Amino acid sequence: MNDVLDVALRLLALLLAFLVLPLVVGQTEHKVMAHMQGRLGPMYAGGFHGWAQLVADGVKFAQKEDVVPAGADRRIFQLAPAVALLPYLLVLVAIPIGPAEGAVGQFVDAGIFFVLAVMGVGVLGSLMAGWASANKFSLLGGLRTAAQLMAYELPMLLTAASVAMAAGTVSLPGILDAFEWWWVPWQIVGGVVFFTAGLAELQRPPFDAPVADSEIIFGAYTEYTGLRFALFLLAEYAGIVILCGLTTVLFLGGWHGPFADDLGWLWTLLKTAVLAFVVIWLRVTYPRLREDQLQRFAWTCLIPLSLAQIALTGVVKVVIS
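-> structure tokens emitted (321 positions)
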């Protein structure tokens, strides 16, 4: 009975985190962009510091008509938002937020491989949406998404492998148990590459060519309205939380703090929040890359850097062994 209750409480906590954290990131993005770009609306909706902006957006999406194009593949069109969103819930299950045994939803022995493989499944949602919409612009956006995944998945895998080499395990809790602060200086390049490649997989600016409004309207999501469109937005914000959480666990020590480890999950949330702010900051700072620039950046910059990081990790392991 106690085991069943423990599992139920973990699932409830994960669902609450999955529903709340992406909304917090979305609300924060409204506020940060309002300050950086002088947007008045998000600063005043509802009174104190625009607290009701997120509520207004939710009501707006709920009131919009749910339209399915006449020529669309209805079943795939309707299923695509769920396929884009649910993989991030599965990844959240495997991310440890604290040192206690219960601080991870479910222990996965090959945690790195699991989370990176499942994150890649989310791209299928964009492909399904682009193909099923019966819209050439949507199809082109879906194809751009696939090409972007192929280019940026490799540096993510290579840099994650360098951390696994350093820790001697592919388990996420095992990596945190083996973490040492002197890792940070010589793993920092890998961390930047991992974080940057993750932004590209999420199609966040400046890597948002698959949804370039000046070229292909809104890419794979052009024909979506109402709550189905809102699910794609929720998937984007959930992806930000997952990417920042993984970067924290792999490269920033997770629940380890510079002064005390006793804070546990608070350190994890704090580091994740800082990285989420960086994601928003990049959106309002850099212009969109062209498709050729985006591909060139992955193959001629990020992949060589990730290979160099693996080589450096091998050298360090040999020297200290």
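Residues 66-320 form one domain.
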